[in-house]
Request: fold
Amino acid sequence: MRISTGQFYESTAANYQKNFANAVKTSQEASSLVRVNTAADDPVGASRLLQLGQQSSMLDQYNANTNTIKATLGQTESVMTSINNVLQRARELAIGVGNSGYTDADRQANASELGQIEDQLLSLMNTKDENGTYIFSGSKGDTAPFSRNADGTYSYNGDQVTLDLPVGDTMSMATNSTGWEVFQQAINTSRSQVTLTAPAVDDGRVALSNGQVSSNVTYNSKFRSGEPYTVSFVSGTQLKITDSSGTDVTAEASQGGVFDSTGSQTQGVTFRGVELSLNINLQPGDVAGTVLPGHSFTLAAQPDTFTATRAPGNPTTSQVTSTSITNSANYHASFPSGAAVLKFTSATAFDLYAAPLTADSKPVSSGTMVGNVATASGVSFTMSAAPAPGPNDQFNIAVNTHETQNILDTVSQLKTALNTPTNGNALLIQKQQAAVASGIANLASGNDQLSSALSSVGGRGAALDNQAEINQSLKMANTTTQSSIRDSDPAEVMTRLTLQQTMLQASQLAFSKITQLGLFNKI
Reply:
């Protein structure tokens, strides 16, 4: 077979260019030690590198989220610890007023410090982060979570939403703790109340304090089912308790309802998860068996209360001036739990909705005002006489069941109790002591709730550290795998480069020798 001179040159040049290109490529690989620069270098490896690159980016984002959450948790823990210290000081002040040598002036001095503590707590609970966002407002970071109402009580203005960030492929973590969870859910131990029903004018001989809930389980399962109770004194040493149906349930009271009328010390009466303080204040010449019978009280859970605020877009400036439950059965049957919206459709007609009010909301109840009172689902709302409400006026109704209590309200109530002078009056002193005992119990409850929230922060921090270690291990494995696919083996590359350079030199030498075999070189 004949090979023309042109074919020979073309074949030799193509072979030389191929060897040259391989040598150049290998030389570049030897310089960078990167094997896969384009998908053409290794289609399967390039696809795998793309997946690993995406995983690496996610791990970097997880690391950034972890640092963000750590910073937020650190600030939250610091603020909570400060609040815990402030609450501890409040408890010390409350316990201290039990000193028999304290005067009204001493107690009022403690109340003054409690007022400063109250302001300090409000400031701490409205703490902002470095971005100016309130840390306890949930998702409403631009709204101060707690505010003082005109009557001295406090309201929570945030929500219950936690802001979660992913810190792993299957793990997200809350960056914040809501004020609702940390401060609003402390169990209110003082949610039962005692009311004197006889005699018509209190003679001061019997003082029975509002009850303190000692067992939530017993209180909810037994006490609530039989209220209201009647506590009557039938002799100088025996009281009787009957439930709402008239059944005698005295046997469930401590000591079967027997008490001591000869001492002036406070006596404890435990009944269905509630602890009451009993004081007998006999006057000189009194015979217990004669003067004590006929005294009676009602004992029941503190009734729900309501906070009504007008919507800012109302056509009129009408206000809800007072609220009360006027039909307990209707209230428990249909009134929305938590919050409601009262909306007027005319100057007298209104509808009650469960909050929040949306376009497809259906009214829970409807009615017409009688005078200036609107009654919906067993609750009466007294409206301001002038101006009267108009069509499209709306009022937001918050329901307080008194099952929980904000620690700010607890400190405020305790301050009020200590500010009230007793002037040495035994009955007033007993009432004050009962209020202080209630405050101490609720401070302890608030402290327990805060401790639980601190534990939650600590638990998240520990989980975050564990996840960070997992992410770091994944990052190292990712880097190693990418390197094994993308990077070259220096020894292998240098061996290949040496071989390709040798082949290129041989190709050059062979081309040079063969070109000398031409006919013209023999002439």
In short: The longest strand covers residues 192-198. Residues 54-186+442-457 form a domain with the f41 fragment of flagellin, N-terminal domain fold (CATH 1.20.1330.10). The chain has ten helices and 20 strands.
